[in-house]
Predict the structure of DNA-binding response regulator.
Amino acid sequence: MQHTPPSRILVVDDDPTVAEVVAGYLDRAGFTVDRAADGPRALELAAAVRPDLVVLDLMLPGMDGLEVCRRLRADGPVPVIMLTARGDEEDRILGLEVGADDYVTKPFSPRELVLRVASVLRRAHARSSDPRPAPLLRAAGLVLDPAARRATKDGAELALTLREFDLLSFLLRHPGRACSREELMHEVWGWEFGDLSTVTVHVRRLRGKVEDDPARPQLIRTVWGVGYRFEADGAQLPQGPAQPPQGPGVRGEGADRA
């Protein structure tokens, strides 16, 4: 009987205590773990061992985590979870902008981080292993090709992160319906619980890429007290409900409005 090898996680943090604790929890959860204390070593290890996911500290000496993330993602779509020492929105936006799939703010629960790792890996595996043909999604000048993970607006390609693509895809599949932040977190992120401001930040970033005037959004509308609604007259969308994969939940805080 052939067994699937454990997923390989690269932990990048210059704080040896944090790196040891994170690596220990991941090891006990059944993952194979490699560690690096700086950016150059992280890139060297990533090229050598090809990790399934990278846990990456933002504040690294010399080459910071943002630059490491840019270089990692330039070599392929490896999932990245960013560790940030500060919880302000600027850090979140910067991490998400360079392609991080998730972020965890220090101090954090190592058990929560393990759940986040499992959730991101589960979704990445589902995307790569689903054999079903995915129809194109078309609405308001937007065209999404789920199989190729490619999106365009009025013929121009959109540079969307993995989460932005998944979020836009879900909204396109449910035009005209008010989607709560909790629903989006469950369906797009696969979490039962979490920091709802993650959804807010992603919506704001997505508007900046698909709206003609992000300050006055016409496609992704805010439904006050609920969440968001995608508006597109005459949308040409496939029939049937979307069934994105689900993942474990984590505790979090409330959301900002956008």
